[in-house]
Amino acid sequence: MKALVILGSPRTNMNTDILLEQVIKGLEAKNVEVEKIELGKLKFDPCISCNACGQTGQCYKKDDLTSIYDKFDTSDIIVVGSPMYFNSVTAITKTMIDRCQAFWSSKYILNKPSIDKNKKRKGMFVCVGGAKQPEEGFVGATVVIDLFFKAINTEYVYNMLVDNTDEVFVGDSKDLLKKAYKMGSDLAKY
Ligand SMILES: Cc1cc2nc3c(=O)[nH]c(=O)nc-3n(C[C@H](O)[C@H](O)[C@H](O)COP(=O)(O)O)c2cc1C
After folding, report:
1. Residue 190 — very low, low, confident or very high, per pLDDT cuts 50/70/90?
2. Cα(129) to centroid of ligand 1, in Å?
3. If you measure from the C-alpha of residue 83 to the centroid of ligand 1, how many angstroms do you get, rounded to a whole number?
């Protein structure tokens, strides 16, 4: 099995990244081949609503995101990690998602998905929020991910939502690290 893990925080070795690294360890313990993409290190433009993908099913832009479409297609597991920014995902995460409009258009407009619709993909979302809040505080981010996973024919199976990260660093919580590891290894069971 193959997993694509996407870091949507511009910060490496911080809360989101540390949780993703545990998810990766859990996946690798089950022999899943993992590719991690750090969006903060890539250069890519936002979607400009040119509607080329509404006609071709492909994004016409050629930049650092171009290779990601095939990676979604060939992955069995997709993990997106993003901090919450203004009650949603980060701008780099949202820009990547908007650039996947090609999948949405090919599926819902052209009825000819440019992502293999017969492949079973499992999706997990890791989201951290600096403020102390209940799970409902994450709804702005989870609804975005829900629609994104639908567009890429991925079943949204797990959320790991962690609040209060501006007070409590996830790296100091053995329980959170263990939980992320277990979710990774459980994802591989499907
Ligand atoms: C631009 C910006 C907007 C933010 N908006 C929110 C927010 O709406 N809710 C919240 O709980 N935390 C918010 N935060 C705090 C981050 O979610 C928090 O610092 C988180 O730990 C960052 O993730 P990282 O450590 O993986 O980079 C915001 C931080 C930034 C920089």
Report:
1. low
2. 5
3. 6
CA of 113 to the centre of ligand 1 (A): 34
What domain count does the chain have? 1
Domain assignment of residue 177, given as a range: 2-187
Give the containing element (helix H, strand E) for 94.
Answer: helix 91-98
| CATH number for the domain harbouring residue 159 | 3.40.50.360
107-137 pLDDT, tens digit each: 889 998 888 888 899 999 999 999 999 999 9
Angstrom CA distances, 93 to 14, 42, 127, 143, stand at: 16, 11, 11, 14
Q: Is 16 in the pocket of ligand 1 (CB under 6 A)?
A: yes
pTM for the structure as a whole: 0.97
Q: 30 CA distance to ligand 1 centroid (A)? A: 32
DSSP letter for 41, please: G
Question: For 40-75, b where at least 16 C-beta lie within 10 A, e where not — what string?
Answer: eeeebeebeeeebbbeebebebeeebeebbeebbeb
Residue to probe by mutation, ligand 1, list 12, 14, 16, 86, most atoms within 8 Å of CB: 86
